[in-house]
From TrEMBL:
This is S-adenosylmethionine:tRNA ribosyltransferase-isomerase. Keywords: Cytoplasm, Isomerase, Queuosine biosynthesis, S-adenosyl-L-methionine, Transferase. It is found in: Cytoplasm. It comes from Sphingomonas jatrophae. Its EC number is 2.4.99.17. Monomer. It catalyses: 7-aminomethyl-7-carbaguanosine(34) in tRNA + S-adenosyl-L-methionine = epoxyqueuosine(34) in tRNA + adenine + L-methionine + 2 H(+).
Length: 341
């Protein structure tokens, strides 16, 4: 499909720079079949059915943004995928000053050696020493806010908490699974009281999620791979939800892509672990999910293509136009939509 079909105009003032406070006070646009309603995230217990199950991504964002020097040259690096115990793939700023084998000093006793440069322009960085890389990043790194926020304000102490979900447990993401940012212990208790269950899986979100689609046709776009896992017990519980007539509702596109990577053609979800570069565009047949809670996405992005595959492109373009006209807040710290095809 032509990528320009997924374009739309978004006024800059619609981009949220801070999350709603409290988190579950965010607005929610309900798209249930042909029905469109303005609600809030706190309404979820009334919008879902007893027996439904929400699926959350329990990845934890690491301080993956680094600033350093190679000699006199300033080098910025955003880690996006682990490649070994001490090696990470990274997008590098001022890469023209970097060569294979160069050492970068990130301060605080943290150094890395540049390795091969990939076809996508990213570099392999191998961290020196014996300390776990996670400890090095805690010392020298900072929270990697999305570029559309970072371009308008600097990361600060509030982001350390704001940019983690209440489910964050498995360290390894360089971007938050932002749909889950809306959830609070009080909301989870209300959902449980309404008979709505929840499960967790893991997908370590990479910085590739923010990269623009530069191809003119979706067939020519290469997705960045991300590592994920769903265990056998979780997979079987999700299969039982659907067998009993409940719906599996992914919270965020990361949860959805993990489930779809683990689901067979018959719709059964199996234990799965590995890299996924699944790219979902209109025409895709969904196998493991029955709905999606997600934020509002970038024009021409793979995520807007995904929601258009779930709900139809014309439906989503109309919904986004409505959201823009009615003051919904977009992107990572923005409001939510509940998509029930």
């Amino acid at each position: 499909m032509r990528v320009d079909l997924f374009d739309f105009e978004l006024p800059p003032e619609r981009i949220a720079l801070r999350p709603a406070d409290p988190r579950d006070a965010a607005r929610l646009l309900l798209l249930d079949g042909a029905r469109t309603e303005d609600r809030t995230v706190r309404d979820l217990p009334a919008l879902l059915r007893q027996g439904d199950c929400l699926v959350f991504n329990d990845t934890r964002v690491i301080p993956a943004q680094l600033e350093g020097r190679r000699g006199e040259a300033r080098i910025g690096a955003t880690l996006h995928k682990r490649e070994g115990p001490r090696a990470w793939r990274a997008f590098v700023r001022n890469a023209k000053r970097l060569r294979d084998g160069d050492r970068i000093d990130f301060g605080e006793g943290v150094e890395a050696q540049a390795g091969e440069r990939g076809a996508d322009g990213s570099w392999q960085l191998t961290f020196a020493g014996d300390e776990p890389v996670e400890l090095l990043l805690e010392r020298a790194g900072r929270m990697p806010l999305p570029p559309y926020i970072a371009a308008r304000r600097a990361a600060d102490a509030a982001d350390a908490a704001d940019y983690q979900t209440m489910f964050a447990r498995e360290a390894g993401a360089v971007a938050a699974p932002t749909a889950a940012l809306h959830f609070t212990p009080a909301l989870m208790a209300a959902l449980a009281e309404a008979g709505i269950g929840h499960e967790t899986l893991t997908l370590h979100v990479g910085a590739g999620t923010f990269l623009p689609v530069k191809a003119e046709d979706t067939a020519d776009h290469a997705m960045h791979a991300e590592w994920g896992r769903i265990d056998a017990a979780t997979a079987e519980r999700l299969n039982q939800v659907r067998a009993r007539g409940g719906r599996v509702i992914a919270v965020g596109t990361t949860s959805l892509r993990t489930i779809e990577s683990a689901a067979g053609a018959d719709g059964r979800i199996a234990a799965w672990e590995g890299d996924t570069a699944i790219f979902i565009t209109p025409g895709y047949t969904f196998r493991g999910i029955d709905g999606l809670l997600t934020n509002f996405h970038l024009p021409r992005s793979t995520l807007f293509m995904l929601v258009s595959a779930l709900m139809r492109l014309d439906r989503m373009k109309a919904a986004y136009a409505y959201a823009i006209e009615n003051g919904y807040r977009f992107y990572s710290y923005g409001d939510a939509s509940l998509l029930l095809p």
